[in-house]
Design goal:
12 strands, TRAF-interacting protein with FHA domain-containing protein A, 11% helix, 33% strand, innate immunity, immunity, mainly beta, 7-stranded mixed β-sheet
Length: 189
């Protein structure tokens, strides 16, 4: 046996991708303390806090309008499954937090959907969970979005998250044309 054959199986890691946007991000530089484009490991028992106070928050947003602790993300394992998830909790007494269309007041919490938009004030954060097997830690991967994530014209398509068939044509296209979709055998194409 070679050392390659004897090596343990590498487990995949759950990764939380976060895309940040603020309309004044270039002038105000509120994201200057965030480490973009590099995956960062977070212990499973740590609470990932976001806010203005860098002594408390792992992810610091440098702006006076942001609460000392704006919100937290807690990694957990779902009961009776091997599936993991994240819980988001609003820790701001002054600002409501919106996760997709669900508004969270102070100390309200919900499960973070696998893909969603978190917003508060002018901040928009598109999050997406990449599932993994590791339970001792997870990773975060931060990105800076150049364009607004939440726009009136694309809000419904982001929030509904309806699957698009392999043909690449959305059922909503047919409905807007006054037609109903027809099933076609792939051999007929």
């Amino acid at each position: 046996m070679t050392s390659f054959e004897e090596a343990g199986t590498e487990e995949t890691v759950t990764c939380l991708h976060l895309n940040f946007y603020h309309p004044g991000q270039h002038e105000k530089m509120m994201f200057r303390c965030l480490n973009f484009c590099k995956r960062e490991q977070v212990r499973a028992d740590d609470v990932a806090k976001f806010g203005r106070d860098s002594s408390i928050c792992r992810y610091s947003l440098v702006e006076a309008r942001v609460s000392r602790i704006q919100f937290s993300l807690q990694f957990y394992r779902k009961l009776h499954t091997s599936e993991c998830g994240f819980e988001i909790k609003n820790l701001s007494k002054k600002t409501k937090l919106t996760v997709n269309q669900t508004e969270l007041g102070y100390l309200n919490k919900i499960d973070l959907p696998w893909k969603c938009i978190i917003s508060f004030g002018d901040y928009q954060i598109l999050t997406e969970i990449e599932e993994g097997e590791a339970v001792d830690y997870f990773e975060t991967h931060l990105h800076l979005a150049e364009a607004p994530i939440l726009q009136e014209k694309c809000l419904p398509c982001l929030l509904s998250l309806q699957p698009i068939p392999e043909s690449g044509v959305s059922p909503s296209f047919f409905l807007s044309q006054g037609k109903s979709p027809t099933e076609i055998d792939e051999n007929d194409l």
